[in-house]
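Task: encode each sequence below as structure tokens.

Item 1
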Amino acid sequence: MSQQPNQYSAPSPEALEEFLRLATAIVGEANISRDPSSGAPEGLDGGCSYGDPFPLSQPHIPGPAIRPETVDHVRDIVRAANKLKVPLWTVSRGKNLG
């Protein structure tokens, strides 16, 4: 059975670890959060987590977060994710979040 284009498929642990290794080389260790409560700015609910404050299902545990600083960082991260088939979910903590 073939996978639908928009159907999510979790990456293997090895692919995710390799992706995080590449992302760390791109943006530096200080800009990688491997767990949802590490490195996140304070959110609207007062919590410091990359977790969705309005999840559609429980429990909802977010994956790692990467904080790029430049267009080149974003480009290189997207290329690494495509190469390793790691899906990305973008989040903005700017004015368009609500």
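Item 2
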Amino acid sequence: MRKRTAWVSLSTVQLRSIKALTMLGLALSLIVVPARSQTVPQRSGSAVSYLTRGKAQMAKGHLNEALVDFDTAIKFEPGFAAAYYERARVLAVRGDLASAIGDFTKAIEINSRFVMAYDGRGNAYLSKGDMVAAIADFNRAIEIDPRYAPAYVNRGAVRQLKGQFNEAIADFDKAISINGRLAQAYNNRGAVRMALGNMDGAIVDFDKAIAINPRLVAAYNDRGTARLEKGNIDRALSDFNIALEKDPGYVWAYLNRGIALVLKGKKSEGERDFAKCRELDPNFKFPINERTDALKHRLSIKD
């Protein structure tokens, strides 16, 4: 399955407590950000140059080149916390979570108040399924900087996965109160509202997420899912199509579009989408028939 901008599609985490979310075909969004400028001792000019170039390479998606630059920055300056942090981001995107956690930890050892390193390590722990360690790191990030909005978004995602919906909404609300331009906060809050049965409120949040970041593919998928729950199949299909135009490897959009097509009586087209899910991710599992039958019953659709 194609990697999203977040490190992991949380809907694939095998946790019984998230059935309400996975049954809706939703996936949460995490926030991982480049390091901010920090007040640190004077650094080697060469180390800073390689760090800067590596961040530019990563922004372009050139992960191998970025990794080489961060390696070189660390060789020039072994105590350069930001270089370990940025290298950890690359390693996490590549799926080497153990090494990423090691680099985030090294950055924290160098600078014990490095908020984004705690936040980044929390994301890596969550990607490994360790919610206890993830929550501890997000809590520490918030303790150091109560105005660091991404940590609230990421802690809210963990609480959402644990089924602590009210606490999750409180975290997303807090993030939005600090920074009203965080599309992931609106999208995740919308997913919780949807899991609680508030489809109209969810759609409002998904609309806001898309207005802020039209490239957030999960928001189109999730809005389409909410519309599908309301019985607006054509508008749901439009959202799933947009999601797939933006990311042809987005498994959840194929799943949901397939269900919508089956509901419209286009079973063969729906089956092609389900087959595409399995092609993209051979380990993909989802109770398709259970979900489709439940929608048919609720929307009074006959075979």
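Check on item 2: Confidence is low (pLDDT under 50) at residues 1-20. The domain at 10-38+114-299 is CATH 1.25.40.10 (Serine Threonine Protein Phosphatase 5, Tetratricopeptide repeat).
End of task.
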